[in-house]
């Protein structure tokens, strides 16, 4: 019951278009805090009842927000890599703006987040489209990465 409430009412609104977000440690922390607050409220686990966040997610049957977003981002990247070369999302993926950033602008971008995801799987933006053409192999890379991330925690 808790899993359905959380997935249908909370996560669907919270993660709307999350595959296109830049993903910093600060954003990740805020989302994780929000998820645990919501789960504790839905499951009626209040502060006197000491329970770890991992146990809370296990009882609720949900993954961490960062795992969900990483999976969504990986699926979206595969979709974009399979698009025709002249499509707008594919062109935007390769596009590099001219000039320098203004002072104070954030250095983390969506493209750098994607580059980091690809690097953890041993890929680059140039090799990704050929592997994304094979959907089964692309999905296996997403699953392998999420299980590796869980083992590291």
Description of the structure:
This is Endonuclease-reverse transcriptase. The protein has 153 residues and is mainly alpha-helical. It has two domains: 2-63, no CATH class; 68-96 and 108-152, no CATH class. 63% of the residues lie in helices and 0% in strands. The chain contains eight helices and no strands. The radius of gyration is 18 Å and the shape is globular. The two termini are 27 Å apart. 14% of the residues are buried.
Give a brief description.
This is Endonuclease-reverse transcriptase. The chain is mainly alpha-helical.
Helix content: 55-70%
Largest sheet: none
Q: Which structural class matches the secondary elements?
A: mainly alpha
Mean pLDDT: 82
Q: What general outline do the C-alpha atoms trace?
A: globular
**Spatial extent as radius of gyration:** 18 Å
Number of helices: 8
Strand content: under 5%
Rounded to the nearest angstrom, the distance between the terminal CA atoms is 27 Å
Give the ordered list of helices and strands: HHHHHHHH
**Number of spatially distinct domains:** 2
Topology, number of strands: 0
Q: Uncertain spans, ≥5 residues at pLDDT below 50? A: none
Key attributes of the depicted protein:
153 residues, mainly alpha, 2 domains, 8 helices, 0% strand, globular, Endonuclease-reverse transcriptase
Secondary structure layout:
Layout: H1 2-14, H2 25-42, H3 53-60, H4 65-81, H5 88-94, H6 110-120, H7 128-132, H8 135-152
Helix pairs in contact: 1-2, 4-8
């Amino acid at each position: 019951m808790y899993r359905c409430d959380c997935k249908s009412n909370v996560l669907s609104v919270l993660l709307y278009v999350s595959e296109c977000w830049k993903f910093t440690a600060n954003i990740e922390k805020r989302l994780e805090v929000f998820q645990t607050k919501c789960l504790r409220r839905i499951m009626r686990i209040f502060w006197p009842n000491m329970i770890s966040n991992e146990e809370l997610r296990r009882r609720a049957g949900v993954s961490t927000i960062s795992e969900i977003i990483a999976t969504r981002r990986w699926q979206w990247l595969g979709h974009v890599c399979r698009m025709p070369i002249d499509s707008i999302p594919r062109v935007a993926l390769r596009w590099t703006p001219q000039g320098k950033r203004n002072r104070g602008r954030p250095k983390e971008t969506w493209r750098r987040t994607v580059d980091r995801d690809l690097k953890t799987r041993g890929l680059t933006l140039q090799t990704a489209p050929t592997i994304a053409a094979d959907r089964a192999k692309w999905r296996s890379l997403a699953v392998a990465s999420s299980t590796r991330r869980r083992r590291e925690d």
